[in-house]
Specification:
Strand order of the largest sheet: 5-4-3-10-6-7-8-9
Number of strands: 10
Shape: elongated
Order of helices and strands: HEEEEEEEEEHEHHH
Structural class: alpha+beta
InterPro entries: LD-transpeptidase, LD_TPept_cat_dom, Peptidoglycan-bd-like, PGBD-like_sf, PGBDSf, Transpep_catalytic_dom
Largest sheet: 8 strands, mixed
GO cellular component, one term: extracellular region
Distance between the termini: 12 Å
Domain L,D-TPase catalytic: 67-176
Family: Belongs to the YkuD family.
Helix content: 25-40%
Number of domains: 2
CATH superfamily of the largest domain: PGBD-like superfamily/PGBD
Number of helices: 5
CATH class of the largest domain: Mainly Alpha
Oligomer: single chain
CATH architecture of the largest domain: Orthogonal Bundle
Pathway: Cell wall biogenesis; peptidoglycan biosynthesis
Length: 260
């Protein structure tokens, strides 16, 4: 008797494994390790091996106790939760197409005051590929209307000042942007999409390093070898065709493993 798994079921199964493993790791090792979250990816095939990567792609669940933050760039809103209950929300704006905000789960690592160009407030996040955070702006009209920053989350000055009163170092911040436009990836790019690319290449056995969201030589070589094997243009640049093929191969890999 054969069990048929749809693509949606496979994705839901993989996400469930991610969330379950994350809960176990947090329970056994604490929610952070030197201010960098390390979640263990589910192992779709024993031959691939285990690895860790920073951030998590999945569903947001408010912290059971204390404060947590959801930044929803699809709706351009920041929601503050206290013990799973929504208590405040403010409009926000995020990064542009070529400078996207870091999606995934992060930790507040610093809270301070910056120059008035940043509204006088700064909330830093533990993004490994650059300096990202939440701050104010001298252009309040873009907040809630246009995602045009260099990746940081912009708030109106009075709003970020109010947010600072609630939170402390260690608060979890989840950033989502499901409708973010696709961008071509190549050597020198950084971001959550690069991180996801590295994770997929690693699942398929092409990438040996630790996924870090930085498109460098190792990522270029891994992607180019994948393109060679797929007999498509092998330029080490990720366009939409290469991305679609990667998603299909990872889906096939997970499907084969589930049917074993």
């Amino acid at each position: 008797m054969f069990v048929i798994f749809t693509k949606r079921k496979i994705i839901k199964f993989a996400l469930s494994l991610i969330i379950f493993t994350s809960i176990v790791l947090v329970a056994t090792h604490g929610p952070w390790d030197q201010w960098v979250i390390h979640y263990q990816m589910p192992e779709p095939n024993p031959a691939v091996g285990n690895w860790h990567y920073q951030s998590i792609f999945g569903h947001f669940t408010p912290a059971l106790e204390g404060y947590s933050i959801l930044v929803d760039l699809d709706r351009q809103i920041l929601i503050l939760y206290e013990s799973e209950k929504e208590i405040k929300s403010w409009p926000v704006s995020g990064g542009s197409k070529e400078n996207p905000s870091p999606t995934g789960l992060w930790i507040v690592t610093d809270i301070g005051n910056w120059g008035q160009g940043f509204g006088g407030s700064w909330i830093a996040l533990n993004v490994p590929w650059g300096k990202y955070g939440i701050h104010g702006t001298v252009n309040p009209w873009v907040v809630g209307n246009h995602n045009i920053s260099h990746g940081c989350i912009r708030m109106k000055n009075q709003d970020v000042s109010e947010l600072k009163k609630y939170i402390s170092i260690g608060v979890l911040v989840y950033i989502k942007h499901d409708t973010a436009p696709f961008r071509v990836l190549m050597d020198g790019k950084v971001g959550s999409d690069v991180l996801e690319l590295q994770v997929m290449l690693k699942q398929l056995g092409y990438y040996d390093g630790v996924p870090d969201g930085r498109f460098g030589t190792d990522t270029y070589k891994a992607l180019r070898q994948f393109q060679i094997d797929e007999q498509i243009k092998a330029d080490g640049t990720l366009g939409e065709h290469s991305w679609s093929l990667l998603e299909k191969r990872v889906s096939d890999l997970n499907s084969d493993y589930l049917l074993q």
